[in-house]
Structure formats: structure tokens, C-alpha cells
Amino acid sequence: MTSKSQQYRFVSAAKLPTRKGEFTIHGFVEENSGVEHVALSYGTWQPEDVVPIRIHSECLTGDALFSTRCDCGFQLERAMENIVENGCGVLLYLRQEGRGIGLINKIRAYHLQDQGMDTVEANEHLGFDADMRTYEMCKVMLDKLNVKNVELMTNNPRKTAALKDLDINVVARKPIDHGITKDNKNYIKTKTEKLGHAFDPHILGD
Ligand SMILES: Nc1nc2c(ncn2[C@@H]2O[C@H](COP(=O)(O)OP(=O)(O)OP(=O)(O)O)[C@@H](O)[C@H]2O)c(=O)[nH]1
Ligand SMILES: [Zn+2]
After folding, report:
1. Catalytic positions (predicted)?
2. Among 9, 135, 182, 185, which is most buried by a count of CB atoms within 10 Å?
């Protein structure tokens, strides 16, 4: 029986020039489900270096459709800018749309939130946990990129804990609280109150 992380396989990599800088995109596939994840790497490092990384969960609405209903698109852009400013780093782009429930179910959850539920209540009303994501693929992806020690750009303590459980040395957490808007302030407040997210209170001030 292969361990969960051994189900992931590196397939290929290529140059990816972007408006933020020239990255390399690395494609990984999960053997059983065919789910594809990618890593964007920038610059070089030694195994003993501390590398800035972002674990970014796919959010079509935020990442590609300019939604202000969440902070994802703002965080994606800021994370890539941080990596380029630092001179090196990695962004793991994980196909975990909707905190793992998928795009159509996220739209169903949004519909329930339009009726007054919060983002946790909506997931649970649909029969899902508040957060269905797992992070075992990060181990295979970071090992392939020779990243052992990380500075993690996140407000989500579950990501820090998940990497530590994978024996990845999380040296520091760097907040990434960009993109607070009038449309997502309540969503973010719910994440701090119910999902343990660490946002500085001043940025959510009323
Ligand atoms: N089910 C559900 N998923 C959502 C909702 N809003 C955003 N998402 C998904 O949540 C994921 C992003 O998670 P966030 O909670 O924004 O942030 P995080 O990645 O957990 O934490 P950070 O690293 O601090 O950004 C993406 O997969 C989004 O599609 C929602 O209302 N319901
Ligand atoms: Zn989003």
C-alpha cells in the first residue's frame, strides 16, 4: 500500500513568463484520481536555505474572475510579487477549489450565503466539513524542488500544522492579509472566528 504522498508523480516542467516575473511551472498528477497540481518556482536555493512559499488553493472566482467575494486573487498576486521581490520562492497551486468541495458546490455554498448563512454553515448545510482540504501532495512537490525549510505565506494555521506533520521545517509564518474588501470582510471574520485564521484585528476594523 503506497503512502498517500507516494500517489503523486512529477510529470514535466516548463518556463512560465508572467506579468510578475519569469517562473518555472512544474506539473504533478495524483495517480488514482488524475487530479493535477502545479508548483511555480522562481530563482534558486540550497537545501539548507529558508525558502518563501505560498500554498494557494485554487479559487476560479478569485484567481481568474476578479471576484472581491474572497481574498484569493489578491493573495495570489501578492504572493508572486513577494517571491520575486525576495529573489526566490515557490507557489504551490493546489486544485482544491472550494476548500476541497469543488466549484459548483462552492457556488451552491455562495447561494446559501446569499440567504444569510456564513461560509462554514453553508458547507455543513451541504453535508461537507467546513474545510475538506488535505496537503500531502505538498511533500512530494517540495521534495522535488529541494525545499526543506520554509517561510510560509498564510493566515491559516492548518497549513502550518499540515506542513509540520509532513516533516517540512516551517521556520516562520508570513501573514498575507491582502485584499480585504467590503464584499469579503464578513467571510474573513468567519474564518478568524470559526477556522482559526490569524488576521490582525485592525485590518477587519468596522
Ligand atoms: N466552500 C467554500 N470555499 C470557499 C469560500 N470562499 C472561498 N473558498 C475557497 O477557499 C479556498 C481559499 O481558502 P481561504 O480560506 O481563502 O484561505 P486559506 O487558503 O485557507 O488560507 P490563506 O493561506 O491564509 O489564504 C479556495 O479553494 C476557495 O475556492 C466559500 O464561501 N465556501
Ligand atoms: Zn477565493
Report:
1. 131, 133
2. 135
All three cell numbers of 125: 448545510
**By alpha-carbon position, which residue is closest to atom 3 of ligand 1?**
98
Q: Which grid coordinates are listed for 111?
A: 447561494
pTM for the full predicted model: 0.92
What is the predicted ipTM? 0.96
pLDDT, one tens digit for every residue, the chain (206 residues): 345 555 999 999 999 999 999 999 999 999 999 999 999 999 999 999 999 999 999 999 999 999 999 999 999 999 999 999 999 999 999 999 999 999 999 999 999 999 999 999 999 999 999 999 999 999 999 999 999 999 999 999 999 999 999 999 999 999 987 777 788 887 778 877 888 877 666 655 55
Identify the residue whose C-alpha is closest to ligand 1 atom 14: 72
Answer yes or no: is 108 a known binding residue.
no
3.40.50.10990, 3.30.365.10, 3.20.20.70, 1.10.3720.10: which CATH number matches 8-96+135-193? Answer: 3.40.50.10990
Question: Is the Cβ–Cβ distance between 62 and 72 less than 8 Å?
Answer: yes
Tell how strand 50-57 and strand 36-42 pair up: unpaired
